[in-house]
Amino acid sequence: MARYSKQREVIENILKSTKAHPSAAEVYAKAREEIPNISLGTVYRNLDSLSHDGSAQSFTVGDIAHFDGDVSPHPHFFCVKCGKVKDLQCDMEKLLLLMNGLEGCKVDTETVLIGGVCSSCI
Asked: How many CB atoms lie within 10 A of CB 97?
């Protein structure tokens, strides 16, 4: 586990307090409300550390990395028009069993991204 720092705690709390799947820039803007002199580099380093130690999930949609404080296995939906990301309620265990049952497939990751158009963009 990484060393404790006030910056890391604030960033982790931001991720755990939202379902919005923020980008690093959005986390940075929110963190500046609490720590005005925090640098963007500090935010990136802490997001990377949180993702690598399993305290957060990260995934890329288009060319933007998104972060999720909910580390339980769950799929995400992203809108191809507006870029909004949201959690999907799905039985991941059944989905993984289905994927492992496909000929020649062995699932070794649990990141599931499903793209489409959200109700706001239809």
From this structure: 11
pLDDT digits (tens, 9 = 90+) for 62-77: 899 999 999 988 889 9
Q: What residues have CB less than 8 Å from 19, skipping those under 6 apart?
A: 70, 86, 87
- What's the token pair of residue 90? 């799905």
Contact (Cβ atoms closer than 8 angstroms) between residue 103 and residue 92: no
CA distance linking residue 8 with residue 28, whole number of Å:
12
The 10s digit of each residue's pLDDT in 74-116 is 889 999 999 999 999 888 778 777 877 777 777 766 688 999 9
Nearest to 75 by CA among 56, 89, 60, 61: 89
CB atoms < 10 A from the CB of 44, how many?
Answer: 16
Please tell me whether residue 57 adopts helix, strand or coil conformation.
strand
For 30, the token pair is 């929110």
pTM, 2 dp:
0.86
The answer to whether 1 touches 53, Cβ cutoff 8 Å, is: yes
